[in-house]
């Protein structure tokens, strides 16, 4: 039987033949598959987490106040988190010397007679923290470290809003190493009879050399225009090393940084 193309009995279809060129292109460039979701935090999230952890460091010990530590023959080393607003009952505090009053009590006092002292100090912010104003005296956090026959090291770090601090360090027969926070803004009194004084280059670039009277050098770190004729109640460091060297740097600097103070200091740091 002969069937003509126009015959209604012939089934028809709507299939369209794809041109050869388009078919080849589709084969060479298949549609991209959607990538699976990442199981790692994004860079932005990681950065935010890191910033948060830096803003709220994890301490090795709980905050305290009016801490007094003394050792006759052993070294003293540790991390001390000081909250100057924490109330400690007087009955739990060590007795004061006869000539002392409660106003003389230090927020942190660490001493050893023959051993070394190495303190990592964190200062927490005060409840009613206000920007420092030299014309409005504020109560400073007082820190006292010392040894008679060995080295003394202090690394001070502050939480934003911490009150100004007064740090005193002393030794007769050892070196003194001081690492200051970048927020430090105040006076340095560095005294040595038979030793040397060296400042890290970063400290030297940010301080004004005021004077040297007898064996004491005086510096001011920060904006000197904030100082007037009234008593200074801002940050202050007083160091006395009779027979040892004194080294001052910022807390986040490595030990192999260069110092102003001589060739040996630049070669060996502290």
UniProtKB/TrEMBL annotation:
Region (Disordered): 1-56
Amino acid composition bias (Polar residues), ranges on this chain: 44-55
Domain DUF7330 span(s) in chain numbering: 65-253
Pfam family, one: DUF7330
Descriptive protein name: DUF7330 domain-containing protein
Origin species: Rhizopogon vinicolor AM-OR11-026
Lineage start: Eukaryota, Fungi, Dikarya, Basidiomycota, Agaricomycotina
């Amino acid at each position: 039987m002969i069937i003509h193309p126009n015959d209604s009995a012939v089934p028809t279809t709507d299939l369209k033949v794809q041109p050869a060129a388009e078919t080849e292109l589709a084969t060479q460039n298949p549609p991209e598959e959607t990538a699976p979701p990442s199981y790692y935090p994004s860079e932005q999230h990681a950065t935010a987490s890191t910033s948060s952890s830096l803003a709220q460091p994890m301490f090795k010990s709980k905050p305290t106040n009016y801490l007094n530590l003394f050792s006759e023959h052993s070294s003293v080393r540790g991390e001390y988190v000081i909250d100057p607003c924490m109330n400690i009952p007087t009955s739990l505090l060590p007795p004061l010397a006869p000539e002392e009053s409660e106003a003389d009590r230090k927020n942190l006092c660490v001493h050893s007679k023959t051993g070394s002292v190495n303190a990592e100090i964190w200062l927490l912010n005060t409840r009613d923290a206000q920007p420092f104003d030299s014309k409005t005296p504020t109560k400073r956090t007082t820190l006292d470290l010392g040894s008679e026959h060995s080295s003394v090291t202090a690394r001070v770090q502050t939480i934003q809003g911490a009150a100004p601090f007064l740090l005193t360090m002393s030794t007769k027969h050892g070196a003194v190493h001081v690492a200051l926070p970048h927020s430090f803004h105040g006076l340095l009194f560095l005294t040595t009879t038979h030793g040397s004084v060296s400042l890290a280059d970063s400290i030297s670039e940010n301080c004004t050399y005021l004077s040297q009277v007898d064996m004491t050098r005086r510096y001011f770190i920060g904006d000197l225009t904030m100082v007037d004729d009234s008593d200074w109640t801002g940050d202050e460091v007083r160091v006395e090393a009779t027979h040892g060297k004194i080294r001052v740097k910022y807390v986040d600097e490595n030990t192999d940084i260069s110092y102003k103070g001589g060739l040996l200091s630049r070669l060996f740091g502290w």
